[in-house]
Amino acid sequence: MNSPPANFNPHLSVDCVIFGFDGDNLRVLLIKRKGRNTGGTKAGKYKLPGDLIHLKEDLEGAAKRVLAELTGLENIFLRQFSVFGNPNRTTNEEDHAWLEESSGIPISRVVTTAYYSLIRIDKSKTENENNHHASWHKVDELPNLVFDHNQIVEKGLATLRNEIRFEPICFELLPGKFTIRQIQTLYEVIFGKELDNRNFRKKLLKAKYIVPLNEKQKGVAHKPALYYSYNRNKYVETREDVLYYNF
Amino acid sequence: MNSPPANFNPHLSVDCVIFGFDGDNLRVLLIKRKGRNTGGTKAGKYKLPGDLIHLKEDLEGAAKRVLAELTGLENIFLRQFSVFGNPNRTTNEEDHAWLEESSGIPISRVVTTAYYSLIRIDKSKTENENNHHASWHKVDELPNLVFDHNQIVEKGLATLRNEIRFEPICFELLPGKFTIRQIQTLYEVIFGKELDNRNFRKKLLKAKYIVPLNEKQKGVAHKPALYYSYNRNKYVETREDVLYYNF
DNA sequence: ACAAAAGTGTTGCGATTACACCCATGG
DNA sequence: CCATGGGTGTAATCGCAACACTTTTGT
Fold first, then answer.
1. Which end of chain A is more exposed for a tag (fewer CB within 10 A), N or C?
2. CATH top-level class for B169-241?
3. What is the 3-state secondary structure (H, E, C) of chain A?
């Protein structure tokens, strides 16, 4: 009925859990599914950004492609964390119909490799600048997603929660200059609990890769905070993992 | 030229890095590749146990199937750790020929999901009891494996090294009753360094899930060691992670 | 002057390290 | 009685947790 696979493999996909931090909340970038059904009653379920893998394409390459299309950014933090291959993950009727329709080929089961990615919201294309109907959603107030995408987010979040304790990857989520308080808030929302701020700064500022700038906040109605920046080289050289949170 | 896929998906496989501990060394279970070439000049390269995924089969199910066939064991420790999907991972000519021959179908690129598994060598079928030409190899003296299997082992080992620091999974590798020294040796070979045995026991024996038995070693030419066993329930109940090695 | 968030030090406790000798057994 | 590896305690140090007040700014 349909022609054989054209440029992509009908069994393999990547999906990206893209995290961003708006200063108060950890958010995930979702897109609204396009397709015939969009106008119907069940219009526009949300899904994770993802795509089938092109023939001859690397998995990570596919993830980067999806990311670049969506956010306009290259060289962003990207890490594989799991594979989802349950044979009935795509058997929900509506989901399956959409799959075949949007890919144009008959599809039985899709195994997806899941990546999580950390981006600076301010650097990304805004929600309206791309034509993917993308939007940022609070990670703890997500709508129902297609397939097993809720599960994928959950596992991606668990991975982030774990890895951020040992590696200074939080800076991928923060602007180029930031205050210590911003880092602390980020940790607090990721761990879901408050941290003692004296102890937090003490620990954090031992890290030589967090360097103070000669610049303070402006226009705030309280003592302005000092800005810092992250020196990746200092981390790579020394590999000192001062961040070691046992929450 | 060939008939379409019969019972399995030609793009998806699982591979298992099966670790065992013989009392002195960490070992990996390898099988010798069967096929026409076996008799030829380049006879019998080693590979990881693995297989293509059956249609409608779960990824983890496939890994369990491979494991059960090979070792005769069910319910063994199994954990997904990565996906390898580089499009030229199977392009080595010899490897690729073997792939198509043994599967009977034309194959372009195979994405494999890698699992690592911990088993008690003594409980497994012996090397001769199965007909897969399986053998245990010291993890630091592996031969050249097919495809990217050396890389897969390396990453599996790195994962094990990390996870064993936080979870009491070492018992999966030890016999039902064991001495503290055995655990220590296991950690030493995995971390590749010696540990202070007074401090090691002190830390270890705080864990309530390691319970002393009323039995000692017999027939050793020195003070016999006390045997202990692992109480999984005590761990699951309390989740006390006393194992916390910062090697 | 007031509100609001930034920034700062000390003390007690528990965990980690370093380190050396006696014990039980088989041969 | 000797060789072998099992098993034990203490003291010094380090890192972590708990905790409250002063500073700087805008209004």
1. N
2. mainly alpha
3. CCCCCCCEEEEEEEEEEEEEECCCCEEEEEEECCCHHHHCCCCCCEECCEEEEECCCCHHHHHHHHHHHHHCCCCCEEEEEEEECCCCCCCCHHHHHHHHHHHCCCCCCCEEEEEEEECCHHHCCCCCCCCCCEEEEECCCCCCECCCHHHHHHHHHHHHHHHCCCCCCHHHCCCCEECHHHHHHHHHHHHCCCCCHHHHHHHHHCCCCEEEEEEECCCCCCCCCEEEEECHHHHHHHCCCCCCCCC
Residue A184 has pLDDT above 90, yes or no: yes
pLDDT attached to residue A128: 60
Hey, are the CB atoms on B83 and A87 less than 8 Å from each other?
A: no
Q: Which residue is associated with the tokens 């600048």? A: A129
- pLDDT range class, residue A35, cuts 50, 70, 90: low
> For residues B87 and A240, what is the distance between their CA atoms, to the nearest angstrom?
35
Nearest beta carbon to residue B59 from set A9, A58, A83: A83
Q: Please tell me the distance in Å from A237's CA to the nearest CA on chain B.
A: 19
Å from the A24 CA to the D19 C1': 26
The single-letter DSSP state of residue B178 is B
Q: How far is B30 from chain A (nearest CA, A)?
A: 24
| Domain extents in chain B | 5-163, 169-241
Query: What residue ranges in chain B does DSSP mark as E strands?
Result: 8-21, 26-32, 46-47, 50-54, 77-84, 111-118, 134-138, 210-216, 226-230
Distance CA B67, CA B90 (A): 23
Write down the pLDDT at residue B65: 96
Closest CA to B62 of B53, B72, B49: B53
C1’ C26 / CA A162, Å? 50
CATH code linked to domain B5-163: 3.90.79.10
Predicted confidence (pLDDT) per residue in B75-116, tens digit: 999 999 999 998 888 777 788 888 888 877 777 788 999 999
Q: Which of A51, A111, A161, A165 to mutate to test the interface with B (most CBs of B within 10 A)?
A: A111
- B104 in helix, strand or coil? coil
Per residue in B14-64, pLDDT tens? 999 999 999 999 999 999 876 554 444 455 789 999 999 998 899 999 999
Q: What Å value separates CA A246 and C1' C17?
A: 21
Q: Quote the pTM value.
A: 0.91
Lowest-confidence region among A163-177, B28-42, B157-171, B197-211: B28-42
